[in-house]
Amino acid sequence: MHQRRDDTGRPRHGRRTFSATAGRAAVGLALLTTAAGCSEEPTNPGSTTGGAGGAGGAGGDGGLGGVGGQLVDGDGDGYFGDTDCNDEDPYVHPAAIELCDGIDNNCDDEIDGPDSLNAVTWYRDQDGDGWGVVDQVIQACEQPDGWVLEIGDCDDEVDTVYPGAPELCDLLDNDCDGFGDVPGAGVISPPWGPYYVMADASSGTSLRPSLHEIIHDHQFVPYTSMATDTWDILEAADEHPGDSAVILDIYRNAAYPKHGGGNMDYDREHVWPQSYLPDDADHYPHTDCHHLFLADFGYNASRGNLPFDVCGASCNERPTEVNANQGGGTGVYPGNSNWRKTGTWETWIKRRGDVARALLYMDVRYEGGTHGGTAHLEPDLILTDDPNLIVTTAATDTVAYMGILSTLLVWHCEDPVSPQEIRHHETVYAHQGNRNPFVDHPEWAYCLFLDQCGP
């Protein structure tokens, strides 16, 4: 063994070979040495006047890992004994960088903590759909329950809403693209570009007044008359697609020979009930055939003036018949049946969209004011989600409500425009001179009522 010497060339006796910082050693094994390589008595364990081994009178080597006077750095990482929580691994010591490796790298009694160098960023996924939200973030080595890697959920309380989710008829932006329900393809009318040239679909607030200006002031049709009246128009509009001598009613899906007015098979159904319509029965909203359909006499009475909504439990079935390749009650809710209970009528799946679009039209067509051609006062008709607003009106009232709006928007999506509805629409247009924009442009319903407007 070579003797260590000071600046004068003399041997240095009894000096420990560790630096002043944290007990680091310059070599892997530090020893107490003597001059000429001979051993001398090590510092007395427990001495307060000896070397660092007796610091604070704690006895032994004072936590530096001395063995018989020797300070041991077994792994060569520069940390002795008890200051190194693993003296067999050079990558484990108080100054080490914590890693996600199942080891307490920096001797802080914490394994794989959130400050680990390669900890992963996780995002809160409250609804369990596999997508997290940007404003709730943690760092962790392993995935905690309720936290995920994917980010971008626009509603973390609904598990059917996340980027790329299929769009459902639920009024939600399921795929987080900034737009809600997309109406089914169905069969659409001709584009009618010139008719809607003044429509401004840049926002809901701009679309409503622009559509109202286009569709209001239509040609009046008498309710009952020796001339062409609502009976004539509806029997043409609701004609059975396979038999021109037969009508197909909206609720029962029953086929009846055309009788004209006053028969006991079918009646004129106002989807916006007459009891919720101000004004006289012979004026515009009462005779507007865009919201009139032929309905089985008994079913028309059963529906009465009930608002449209999802029936749910404790409902009575009003089944449909099989006609025109559709219908047929199942006895199982909802099936192909209508359902009713106190305060609610749920239209069957193949005609609920017709009902919805007729009522959406009424909300936009009638906004108060006067008819441009006759100066007749018109009511302001408003669709609502509040059933308490839906009450019987007097002829002198100026505002009336119907609903349920959110359900109607769902039905608009669930039951897209069909050839039967297009026939009804085109027939009414031929007599009244105005169109239902939500038949021609189903997407406008979400723009106008939800302000979800396309680019």
Description:
- The protein has about 450 residues and is of the alpha+beta class.
- It has two domains: about 1-85, no CATH class; about 195-450, no CATH class.
- It contains nine helices and 16 strands.
- A three-stranded antiparallel β-sheet has the order 1-3-2, with no helix packed on it.
- It is elongated and about 120 Å long.
- About 35% of the residues are buried.
Number of helical regions: 9
SS-derived structural category: alpha+beta
Largest sheet: 3 strands, antiparallel
Mean pLDDT: 84
Please compute the radius of gyration using only Cα atoms.
42 Å
How many DSSP E strands?
A: 16
Unreliable stretches: 1-63, 184-188
Task: Give the total of domains.
Answer: 2
Read across the widest sheet, the strand sequence of neighbours is 1-3-2
Give the amount of beta strand, in percent.
5-15%
Basic shape: elongated
> For the terminal residues, how far apart are their CA atoms?
85 Å
- What is the helix fraction of residues, given as a range? 10-25%
Helix-strand topology string: EEEEEEHHEEEEHEHEEEHEEHHHH
